[in-house]
Structures are given as structure tokens and as C-alpha cells.
Amino acid sequence: MNYLLLTNQEEQKSEENWDSWISLDNNTYVYPTDYEDSSPCERHVPGFNSLTLLVIYIIVFVFSLLGNSVVVFVVCSMSRGRASTDIYLMHLALADLLFCFTLPFWAVESHFGWIFGTLPCKFISSFQEASVYSGVFLLACISVDRYFAIVRATRVLSSRHLLVKVICGVVWLMSGLLSVPLAVQREEIFPLGLEHPICYENLTGESSDQWRVGLRVLRHTLGFFLPLVVMAFCYGWTVVTLFSTRSQQKHKAMRVILAVVLAFIFCWLPYNITVLIDTLYRGGSLEETCNVRYRVEALLEVTKVIAFLHCMVNPVLYAFIGEKFRNELLTALYKQGIISKKLWVSYRKGSAASVPSLRSRNTSVSV
């Protein structure tokens, strides 16, 4: 996690003897200030001070916690008709919950510095890393599941819930293993020029730059672009198949799933592209100047905020697009005695046409 260094431009301009500067993206790096400019490079991004990030992180945390908790509640309350996609979506909600639980720590750190010590730094960093990996892996699994259910017209993956649960377990195991390198290197450190400690990768030696770039390449390939290729292939064939059929139920079964994938791409693709560009500069593949550095920092801040918003987006899509999700939510609330039978019956009368879809095992809770 990266943090805003200084919010006062005058303080930044006065520190002309800094030996290093710290990037503002999620993977903090130290760069030597070996540029020929007579004054230090401007690092302040207007509108993104520490208080702004604190407020944004807390808002995202609250809405993500509420929305994804509702998704888990609805799926767990389903007495029958739980499809394989429902299980994947529940685990996706759990991944978003894990991600959002880390936001209060980063919110405090962005304003007050890392005050929690080295051990929490390792755990929180690994939790966030694992949640990002598990989220994209689960989306890839959903795309494969829909491919077999619609394109191949088979229920092998959709009907064997034990297999789906095993796949989810493997996803969580892989995500945990991939988060270990970051957890090992993260420590509470006191960098030169900062008043507060930060949670940072404490790397020294000639191989430190190679390690950082390697970690980023791993995250780019396994944590985004490779799953994105799988999703593009599976959903490409799925959409082609749906266009050739008149089944309205199958069309409905894809609306929310495609919306979830598009939301993921919209939130995370700009950030990953920006981080990739930043990686090329840091690895020495591209020549960097103060103007380029400032532009990259600005893009990192904007795209990072957009990426972090993703953990609260999916429940909103389910609520506004998923007809079955709304029905299942009202049914769960009625069973728990939260809403009256009159309201529940009234809503079901208004959505009587969708009752058959509620019992279909080939659709998901989000449909």
C-alpha cells in the first residue's frame, strides 16, 4: 500500500536534499533522485491528500461491508436451487470482504502513518494481496463455468457442488501462497524524509530492484492479464452462442455475470496498465523525467482509487440488475422475520413471471 507523502507543497519544495522518494502506488518503491533538474520533482497530486484518502477508504469500507455481507447472507439462506455460480459469487463476496477489512488500516496509515507494528503490516498486506488474487481467479472460474453450462450445454460443473467447493478451496490456497512473498518482505520502516513510519517492502542489495519488478510482473500476469485472457475466451464464445439462441432464460443468466466482469475490467484495467507503465520506467526500459514521473503519480492515484471502489460494486449490480437476487433477498428477510408476509407476497405477485427462474439450478442468485 502506498501513501501520500506530504500534502503541503511548500514542505515538499524545501526538501531539496532528499536522497530518495517514495511512489504513491500500492507497491511502494524507492527511487534515487539522479535527475539533472536543479529542484526536486513535484510529487504532490492535487486533491489527493491524506485526509481525502482517509475519507474515501472509510466510505468504501462501510458500503463494501454492508453490500457483500448481504450477498453472503442471501446465498447462505438459499434452501434449494443454489447453482455453482452462486457458490462462486459467495466466495467472490468473501474476497471483497477480506479486501475491505484492510482499508481501515490503510486509511489510518495514510493520515497518521503505520502505527500498528511489523506483524500486522505483514498480515494486512498479505490479506489484501490474497483477496485481489482470489477475486480475479474466481471471476475466471465463473467464466469457465458459464462456458460449460451454455456453450457446451453440460451440467458437469454446475451440478457437482463438491467439485465447485474444491475449486474454490484451491483458489484460496493459491492466492494465499502468492501473497507470501509480499508478506515476507513487508515491515514497518522509517524512511528518510517522512515523519511517520510506513508498511513497506524492506529490500536491500543489488537485487532489490529485480525483486520488485519480478513481483510486479507476477502480479500482472497471474493476477490480472492471464485470467483476463481466460474470461475473454470463455465469454466470447458464450456471447456468440447466446446470439444464436432464442432462450431468454440464458440471456438473463448472463446479464449480471457480464456486468460483474465488465465492472472488474473497468475498475482494475486502468490501474494495472498504469502500474505496468510505471514498472517499465522503474526497470529502466523507459527514460523517466520529472514531468513523466508526476503524470504517472497522478494516474496511479486516480486509478488506484477506482480500483479500490471495485470491492463494493458487485452487490450494487446484483441489486439493480439481478431479479432473482432481489427475490431471494426478500425471501430471506421474510424467513428471518425482518419483513412482513404481506410485503413478501405482494412483491412475489409483482414478479410472478420470474418464479420459474427462481427454481432453476442453471441460473445464479444474481440473475
UniProtKB/TrEMBL annotation:
Subunit field text:
Interacts with IL8. Interacts with GNAI2.
GO terms for biological process, alphabetical? calcium-mediated signaling; immune response; neutrophil chemotaxis; positive regulation of cytosolic calcium ion concentration
Q: Which Pfam families match?
A: 7tm_1
Q: Does the keyword Hydrolase apply?
A: no
Q: Name one GO molecular function term.
A: C-C chemokine binding
In what residue span(s) does the G-protein coupled receptors family 1 profile domain sit? 67-318
Q: Name one GO cellular component term.
A: external side of plasma membrane
What is the predominant subcellular site recorded for this chain? membrane
> Any transmembrane segments, and where?
54-75, 87-107, 132-150, 162-184, 224-244, 256-277, 302-321
Query: What is this protein's function?
Result: Receptor for interleukin-8 which is a powerful neutrophil chemotactic factor. Binding of IL-8 to the receptor causes activation of neutrophils. This response is mediated via a G-protein that activates a phosphatidylinositol-calcium second messenger system. Binds to IL-8 with high affinity. Also binds with high affinity to CXCL3, GRO/MGSA and NAP-2.
Tell me the protein family, please: Belongs to the G-protein coupled receptor 1 family.
Taxonomic lineage: Eukaryota, Metazoa, Chordata, Craniata, Vertebrata
Keyword annotations for this protein, in alphabetical order, are: Cell membrane, Chemotaxis, Disulfide bond, G-protein coupled receptor, Glycoprotein, Membrane, Phosphoprotein, Receptor, Transducer, Transmembrane, Transmembrane helix
Q: Which organism is it from?
A: Gambusia affinis (Western mosquitofish)
- Topological category with respect to the lipid bilayer: Multi-pass membrane protein
In its UniProt entry, what is this protein called? C-X-C chemokine receptor type 2
Q: Where does it live in the cell?
A: Cell membrane
